[in-house]
Amino acid sequence: MYQYNDTDQTLIEERVAQFRRQTESFLNGTISDDQFRALRLMNGVYIQTHAPMLRVAGPYGLLNSKQIRKLAHIARTYDKNYCHFTTRQNIQFNWPHLEKIPDILEELASVQMHAIQTSGNCLRNTSSDHLAGVCIDEIEDPRPYCEIIRQWTTLHPEFAYLPRKFKIAVSGAKLDRAATQFHDIGLHLINNDAGETGFKVLVGGGLGRTPIIGQVIKPYLEKKHLLSYLEAILRIYNLFGRRDNKYKARIKILVKESGMEKFSDLVEQEWLQIRDNLELSSERIDTVKLQFAPPAYETDAVNDTSFAQKLENRSFATWIKYNTATHKVPGYHAVFISLKAPDCPPGDMTDTQLDAVADLADKYSFGEIRSTHRQNLVLADIKQVDLYPLWQQLESLKLATPNIGTATDLICCPGLDFCSLANASSISVAKEINEALDDLDYLHDIGDVKINMSGCMNGCAHQSVGHIGILGVDKKGSEWYQLTLGGSSENEAAIGERLGPAVAKDQVTQAITTILDVYIKQRLDDESFLDMVKRVGTNPFKEEVYANN
Amino acid sequence: MQIIKDRQIIDDNWTFVSNDAELEAGNISVSLTRWKNDKQQLLNSKDNIGVRIGPSDSVDDIGADLNDISLIELDFPVFTDGRLFSHAWLLRGRYNYQGEIRATGHFMPDQIFYLSRVGVNAFNLENTQDLPVALATLNDFTVNYQKSID
């Protein structure tokens, strides 16, 4: 993975010093609440229900064992012994003291980490495919481009006060695991007719209150023009994006209101004027690529003969089936660490678990850990022979629940328990759903169902693209939940359709189990949940869920 | 009044004259509207003219006049309006404007590092007691990742 040079290190250290001064100015009253709000948000500091929340960047989800140990240390020293992994592959601490945040940032900087632009109306952390570099369907590894974009976006002087936040995702595989169609800019590495690799550029996608699928603005962009094209889009957005209403300020609204043709004309005109000055040289790309060179895979990994016998252990075999993915190198597997154990808030990890996972990464996976868009972790390079001992150790850490891609692998925001924006709680509802689906055979029979649940319209947990979406709303002071069906953030992107009136908090779990029962009864052969919803629509589900009303 | 210009704290020798006021002695700046309406008269009576623009103005409107304009003031109605950052970039990067570009109005001392990177070289702060701190923030970073105007 990318290793900082002197410039990178100097930059984050200088940012820590700057934020320390800004925090001190706020605490001694020299800068106002409003001013500090903008400054702290641009460094990942929110003021939440109970305490400030600090969001630390996980650049395109890539972390090393040293960094994971540092997160454990911070959780122990400055927080309540845990942290939370988000859908943007970032890490959140829910209980730090504001005056200690500069110290935390200094600790992070010592392991090449920061909280720069993890919040605020600026260019956010670039996200990517958690199986980048190891998956079998990859056109090209997206991570070098993510790193180039990370650097370009970091402290970009012109685009720090945008109309609204701005998120970029890059995917390099045939299956889009990075939800690129739901980002302000989605980049997809593709081959053109001449066999060269470049980017398909999408713009104007997004979730939140107005979920919109991104549209193609450039069917093929040469790699050398990556940064000039991004700059052109950003300049047009910065100049013309709406600033009169924060709910209409995202680029998706600008694209929608101006129309794609006019918007892309503006971008094109701007781009033609800057592209020659901002070319990305192939030398630069190659230098960054070197940092993502494959690790030293062992050629004898494929010779393991013990595996078939190990698979006779049914629990192990189940875990292999659900929590591992095929690796491009024979004899290796990618392993998912489930952060969705029945009694744990989705995406949360304790300091003890973090330390242990860092040790496992060192022992089995070249010291590298990835965070995923669905709030789990990945150890990307596990030798087949190591799978069994790794599974045993993950089991003992409660990190081996075999539920990746199933109904209990749900995405969930912190909700009313922590977030000051939320209308309804999500963690307690997630727990109830998880408990109701505790029969693994039943869960596995249901198969691939993605449940996403957000505690408010802002949609941090991407409910509108969940196969089943759950959205918490406030109705006269009590918590209600709207259900949607049929959303997807993968290649066949779709926004879920509302099932009917919102249901009360104590009815959510029953509604979900009813929906799943309808699926089990009415599916054809090996039809997936999403396929069935596409085939039959929402009516059969609606009839059952609202049968008693 | 003192301002920061070219990394120094100096006395300001410009006066902004509102649309209906008489022209004062010395260097004056006027609104974009007044500039458009009275361009010739202003050029005849003054050696140095400044024009004040806001976020919703287009830099292209003064693109052809830049040789006659010695100062462009970027007037912040609120510090969160980032359009002026692009205006500054366009003035330097697209029109190669060599005169003074000055931030004025409601912006924060903590923004002047980024403003200086996009080509703003003078800063008229709301509170002059912030001048020394603001000046020091120009040294917040010794490295950067991307090309801009600086």
Question: What's the end-to-end separation of chain A, in Å?
Answer: 55 Å
- Biggest sheet, spatial arrangement of strands of chain B: 2-1-8-7-6-5-4-3
Low-confidence stretches of chain B: none
CATH fold-type name of chain B: TIM Barrel
Average pLDDT over all residues of chain A? 95
Most extensive interface, chain pair and sizes? A-B, 34 and 29 residues
Uncertain regions spanning at least 5 consecutive residues of chain A: none
- Secondary-structure-derived class of chain B: alpha/beta
Question: What is the element layout, followed by pairings?
Answer:
The complex is a heterodimer of chains A (549) and B (150).
Chain A: H1 6-27, H2 33-41, E1 45-47, E2 52-56, E3 62-64, H3 65-78, E4 82-85, E5 91-93, H4 101-109, E6 127-128, H5 143-153, E7 168-171, E8 185-191, E9 197-203, E10 215-221, H6 226-240, H7 251-258, H8 260-274, H9 282-290, H10 307-310, H11 314-323, E11 324-326, E12 332-337, E13 348-350, H12 351-364, E14 368-371, E15 377-383, H13 387-396, E16 411-412, H14 427-436, H15 440-446, E17 451-454, E18 468-475, E19 478-485, E20 497-498, E21 503-504, H16 508-522, H17 529-536, H18 539-545
Parallel strand pairs in A: 6-7, 7-8, 16-17, 17-18
Antiparallel strand pairs in A: 1-2, 2-5, 3-14, 4-5, 4-13, 8-9, 9-10, 11-12, 12-15, 14-15, 18-19, 19-20, 19-21
Chain B: E1 2-5, E2 8-11, E3 14-16, E4 27-31, H1 32-45, E5 49-53, E6 71-76, H2 83-94, E7 100-105, H3 112-117, E8 122-123, H4 131-137
Parallel strand pairs in B: 3-4, 4-5, 5-6, 6-7, 7-8
Antiparallel strand pairs in B: 1-2, 1-8
